[in-house]
Amino acid sequence: MGAGPRRGSRPPGVGVVPALEGAGLIALHLAATPLVGDGRLRWGTVGTEATDELPGDALVPEPKWSYTLGVGVAAPPEAVWPWIAQIGQGRGGFYSYQTLENLIGCRIVNTTEVLPEHQHPAVGQEIRLHPDAPPMRVAVVDPPHALVLAGAPADLAAEESGGAVTWQFVVRADAGGGSRLLTRGRYDHTSDWRARLGFGRFPLEAIVFVMSRRMMLEIARLAEGGA
User: Fold this and answer.
1) N or C: lower Cβ tally within 10 Å for the chain?
2) For 136-148, how does the pLDDT look when each residue is reduced to its tens digit (9 = 90+)?
């Protein structure tokens, strides 16, 4: 059963309280980084999910660092997919801390509806995270199971671009009619300080964790409400 539109709900992450929550969590995780170790890199995963081969892994075959996060969804993959398909700036948003993201100029609007005009991402399509930043491109589309965005064309080596990144979404059917939603990021970069700042693990990993965790929990909520 597919996800239907949700109307009348307040977009997730809007307001002063969510912004303070997001900023506080990022500050906490940045400070705790020396103590956390690799635990954040596999938050929510079960079994072998953190090490399983996923669609898009070959785009960054030897990452400097990577993460895999997981969450259970009480809805089938067909109900989860519409929210993933429309992800992006100027599209459905990122289902995270909207006010906080907009403080740095992202111009994000997190929707609580399935948007028909954004339900068919195509390989090569540009997906923006920020209106002034280079876009990611759709590298893999396999509804309702996988969407992979790449931060550099697959034929462009990290040595030429300064860095390469994938943002991978995978939805697996689970027992009892539910799903497992996984998201993975794989990062490679040169030794140049600008590349390390843009693609390196610190401080990016703590920020990505806080925002991705909120995003995944919100996608689960939306999918469960529309299933």
Assistant:
1) N
2) 999 999 999 999 9
